[in-house]
Amino acid sequence: MVEKEYRILEVSGGAVDCLPSAREPVEKCRFCVFSRYFKIKGTEYPSPALAFCVLHRQDSRELDLKMVDAVTCADRKGEGFRSMLNVIG
Prior knowledge:
Elements: E1 7-10, E2 15-19, E3 22-25, H1 26-29, E4 35-40, E5 43-46, E6 70-73, H2 84-88
Antiparallel strand pairs: 1-6, 2-3, 4-5, 4-6
């Protein structure tokens, strides 16, 4: 997937508009197969979910989710939250 096709989900009140009909807490994004980056004060950090992804293999650092301004999302089909725990479990 080309990065320009990612969606940027702005965080407001600790949640993102995952779908037009589904507002999700940003905490769920760290477990979502579609999350790619978490933006904090202008800096993008790889999603903790990518620690389990063979293609993107990232470390599993903890991010202060209360500081997240936006989440870069790779959900192009409008599936909404999909737990990575279902993929690895």
